Fold this sequence. Notes:
single chain
Amino acid sequence: MGLRETLEARLAGGQDDAMLRLSLAQLHLRGSDWAAARDHAVACLGHDPGQAAASKVLGKALEALGDTPGAAAAYRAGIGRARAGGQIQTAREMEVFLRRLESRSSGS
């Protein structure tokens, strides 16, 4: 059983917390399962609204799903979360993602 399957078994067994959901979101993102990554990132934010890393995963998943406005909103919210939590590098990463997204969507 792989890591993703192990974590999904924990979730099915009733364990549900922010870190489990973030881990699942990241694994699904790496596996190109954008919808599952989105769903787990949203669930993570439900447990811990200040979780900047979940916003980053959410933005990437929404971007891959073609939801440009949703991805931009996730990145903007994540930048605020990261700054509030002192996570400067995470905020900068999302600022780059947001600029690239806006550049692509404007056709520049």
